[in-house]
Input
Amino acid sequence: MHRYAVAARRARLLADVLRFRRIILEYRDTLGLIVAYLETAAARLEQYPAPATAEPNGIPRNLADDVNALRELIATVPVGLSGVILGYVTAPLTGTPVQLAPLNPASSHLAHQERRIVEAVAHLAARLDAPRDELVRTYLDGLLSLHNRHDRVAALAPVTAAERTVHVRIGTYRTAYHPHTGCPALTGKPATYSGTESMPERQARAEGLTACRRCPA
Output
């Protein structure tokens, strides 16, 4: 099956999934528009002949407006529809797989959830070219649920690029975090010192460490 046919199939089956998706009544009309866009995209892609080369070359120009409209519509539904799901339709056209940005949550519980979601996403995504439509529908439905969960974890554990990195002692006397590597309280007591590690300040606080009072302000 060539890439246009693969993308058309995924768009059509995702529309089937969304048509029966539970979502807040307030957003049902929006969901209907999203389903219509997906079905339109599928119908157009099905008209494309097999490409001359196997390499993906991007979204066809006459579908670009529909794809952009889809993204904008999906962004208006705050619950129950992660915008990432559209990436599984466009991936055969662009050659760009769906990738989840690392969250790096400070909480070990959220970090465990993130790892499990990422592993499950990879497991299902690898099966999207199954021969039976009913299987692919099931996988797309599962992927949508997983990406919704990932969005919720991301909302609970945001880590911004501006967050300060601090340094923590390895070994005993690990009670404080240090903004400055030259602090004597970080590297002192060599008999019990095993080195240092760096982490976001919020993670250090989550571990129960407090800011060092000896570090320069």
